[in-house]
Amino acid sequence: MFKKLLTFGSKITTIHIFIFLINFSFAHAISNTADVKDIGVNERLGDYIPLDLTFKDEDGKTVQLRDFFQDEKPVILTPVYYECPRLCGFLLNGVLEVVNNLSSITLGRDFKIVSVSFNPDETPSLAKAKADNYHKALENHQSSDKDWHFLTGDGENISKLTEAVGFKYKKDGEEFAHSSVLVVLTPRGKISRYLYGVQYEPKDLKLSLLEASEGEIGSSKLLNKVMLFCYEFDPVGKKYALQALNVVKAGGVITLLSLAGFLTYLWKKEKNKGAKAHGGLKN
Known about the structure:
The chain is an alpha+beta fold.
């Protein structure tokens, strides 16, 4: 009987942990579960963010969002707040890790990151402290201070931006209940992709940036086109998945081209042999 009770108790504990983990990403710091409906993301793929919104950068300078789109590179937008005791730190650490592990595309040369606090009470000095920490931790990026920006703003501009990207959050005591998401924007500020969680696969981030730029960034545009052809975003799994049918199609085309090339080689070889034989008969 005791063993049965112990087993039952273990199952209940496991269920509670499972429920906690499921809700952690979107119900952080929430005390009233009835408010869960007000937290999360309503995806607005294909919409444009308002680039005329104004914020303060980490140096206290007034900037417009359009300032980060002048060089026609995709932008990763991260809605966070800098005094968040848990989730936002995990998100920013996840961004740092995946950026440091990207191959063939580079922060600055190929894309930018803009982190925006959705807490209107936060100041540029908080943003500056956060910026300094992450800029120092970036690897292989010569101009990190120009490529990963940390912004603060007033309630009106924050609300317009979060509404534009469908990011829903709610203040809960001294903290905020919110989700964890990266919003990938095209070089013109159009919402191209959402990536969720606090850890990100380099492949997923790379493909989302290639998708946002239509393959126009990175060291090889041809390879970019091949990757975009072979991979497609899975809206259920929220990841990029290899498309078997496209791979088969590509393999079939390569096989046909190889066969055509081989047959052409044989034909030319036989033609040359015939020409030599004909020439020999004339002599």
